Amino acid sequence: MPAQRTRRWLDGLHRAEDMLLAALVAALLLLSVSQIGLRVFFDTGLAWAEAAGRAGVLWLALLGALAATRERRHIAIDVLPRLLPPRLRRLAWAVAQLAASALCGSLAWLGWGLVRLEREAPVPFIEGIPSWVPMLALPLGFGLMALRFLLTAGTGPGADRAPGAPPSPETGEGARP
Amino acid sequence: MSLWLGLLILLALAALGMPLFAVIAGVALLGFHLAGYDPVVLAVELYRLGDLPGLAAIPLFALAGYLLGESGAPRRLVRLSNALLGWLPGGLAIVAIVACAFFTAFTGASGVTIVALGALLYPALRQAGYSERYSLGLVTAGGSLGLLFAPSLPLILYGFVAGQAGGGEVTIPDLFLAGLLPGALMMALLSLQAMREGWRLPRGARFSWSELAGALRESAWELPLPLIVLGGIYSGALAASEAAAVTALYVLIVTVLINREISFRELPRVMAEAVRLVGAVLLILGAALALSAWLVDQEVPTRLFEWLSRHVHSPLAFLLLLNLFLLAVGMLLDIFSAVVILVPLLLPVAAAFGIHPVHLGIVMLANLQLGYFTPPVGMNLFIAAYRFGRPIGTLVRACIPFFLILAAAVLLITWWPGLSLALLG
Amino acid sequence: QQIKIATLAPEGSAWMRELRAAAAEVKAGTGGRVEVKFYPGGVMGNDAVVLRKMRLGQLQGGVFTGSELSLVYPDSQLYSLPFLFRNWDEVAAVRAQVDPLLAKGFEERGLRLLGVSGVGFAYIMGNKPLRSQADVAGIKLWVPQNDTIAIRTFELGGVSPIPLPIGDVFTALQTGMVDTVANTPSGAIALQWHGRLRSLVDLPLSYVVGFLVLDDKAWARLSPEDRQVLAGAFAGAARRMDASVREDEDEALKALRRQGLVVTELAPEEAARWRGLGEQVMAELETRQAISPALLAEVRRVLAEARAD
Ligand code: NA
Ligand code: NA
Hints:
Largest interface: A-B, 74 and 77 residues
Distance between the termini of chain B: 58 Å
Helix content of chain A: over 70%
Radius of gyration of chain A: 20 Å
Number of strands of chain B: 0
Strand content of chain B: under 5%
Shape of chain A: elongated
Number of domains of chain A: 1
Radius of gyration of chain B: 22 Å
Number of helices of chain B: 21
Structural class of chain B: mainly alpha
Distance between the termini of chain A: 23 Å
Oligomer: heterotrimer
Number of helices of chain A: 6
Number of domains of chain B: 1
Bound molecules: sodium ion
Largest sheet of chain B: none
């Protein structure tokens, strides 16, 4: 069945996305730890580590926010929607997500504007990479986020879980499906 | 589009449940648009997120927090604190208060205390029987406790800015001393509340050496962590900003390789969860920084303060209005901009009213600390809402008693200069 | 018309006093047509951010150190090259010739240079006297994180510098993670690092300089008369700063000495070694074309003349 195949495909995509996030944060940890190790034990360090780490966190943040959009876990004030009957609640959800999509779309556009601005007067970010490259996180991240908000607008707020999955009292962690 | 119409639309969207980062970014966009700037300025501001001091610490502490929270560490912490402090009502909560203050002093009072330590403490408090509301309030309000203790970065920054701006007698060591009693007052008041809360819980068992030994043995791998980090910093082997990497690595090794409480299969999910938290939180922080930058550009804090100082004629009224002003500023402005912009404005006025610059610094930071979790826009509320998966409204309600207690402490600190200046000699 | 200028200099510093005086002069001289506003203390962001905001028209100008501006105009770090100058007289001789050349270089990059002023000489300051190569080899030296020239120089000299964010330095000095820093005496006092500094090496490491630049688009919008007023006011402010900086730095050094800091000299062969390393780094920059060989040649020519006298 095509619906099932789409579902499987999406699950695979989401798993791959999570692996990418995990790999990124692992890389950041490795970079920070090796920098400390190099300094303490070998009296040296990597000149590009600091800049790369900062850019890495920025990419991490945008990709993480993209994944948070998928899980509908962005922080929002949901006092009013909770009081609405289901129908109106779906409508409120759709309007809010569409507006978020439009805003992310403009942020992506402005991010692209920043990249163009930087390309007019590029400076080295780290040896061999110009400074506009790490900035691509903004148009890319917000662009994909705009797309995802558009998708979630259609599918409704889901069960009674906003913002974020209800955590289990034992661990305080969001319950996973 | 006028400012008010735009704000109205954005507020309506916020009420319908538009994500907060989008609401705040929308307000900033509106502001820059009305100021007549190229809107790409907003992207420039969002990209400044990358210049945040201690940025790399945020994901690493978040990772450590998720690993600790999903491991058996909270349970072990409860056992250990029962074994050690079972006789003391509110023992675990008091441990949490002290730990939060220490941690914030070293990491500089961003939300990292919540994502790193709160992640461990919240489940522990819940398992020990504390109510959800109290536990949430404690870890959220505790997220900025300790701002007054050395070597907190805002305190150092105040010393630098005030020293330049004419508060000649302000030295950083003096500020470190001055922060001790006011900081201790805040902790003492919260500890009293913790004891009241603890009365209601079932009493712990009588003290027993064998239980203590068992609890210590069980936590043998977690206990050295604070010693390694603090020892590393005090011995000069580590910079305070490097604590996050050491902590995350240590916790990763202990939970995955030694205690094996998180399997390799689960690990990517936990890590991805930490990154999602970082993403959701940093996006709000980035949007808030952009809004803060717009306020700075339009000189809003300066104008507000000038208006204020024209209408004040007594030291007492000045201090009271200062409290309210700083509370508002603490919610809207990031702490670094707030210090850099406001200190030069405040110093001369405060001096005219005979307020000691060191006292002023303590008052200011105590106030800004409160701003971190002041409803409706204190950053810590959002971070805790995400981390513990609770609606903002729940967080706000949970924080109200803590806000009232700490606000009382701030008033006391404000009107009782001796508390700040006693140790200066 | 509004001219908005950002700077890292904190409110209350000598820079801000002179800049505000210049702004008042501009307001009076243009009959209120031009209003200059300042954003001190780094609230507008770091150098790269301020330059972006200038290109977008949110800001019109900024005050930068030479190394900050090196991203847009590499030659701006010319004066701050390691061990280039030995004293204030050499600085004065070189700047008289080279300032106008730098102004031309800025102009080619869309920036109008309104004023140049020294901030002071950065010295190596630490917790113990340094004389020999062995003394120097043992130091734990802080350098700013992006200061590639300083890092290169010290690595060549057998010292592995410790790059940290500037906010970490106070605590790092307290814990002993670093025991030596390079800064101007007044900078060390302002940042309150002096509590841990016991000795200063009397060998100027680098001459720190500030440039006040305006974006060309803003400059073009001004009428010729207003431009003259603006240029005159800010050149005057820079001159006053320059005239007082030497005294201010001497005062700062005296204040440090009163607190127990001793000024020591390196052994002659060690001083010569560091000067040689400075030369080597300069030569490297020259061959990589990271700094204009023509400008460097001019600096060397003037210095040779000054030293021959
Ligand atoms: Na804030
Ligand atoms: Na300086």
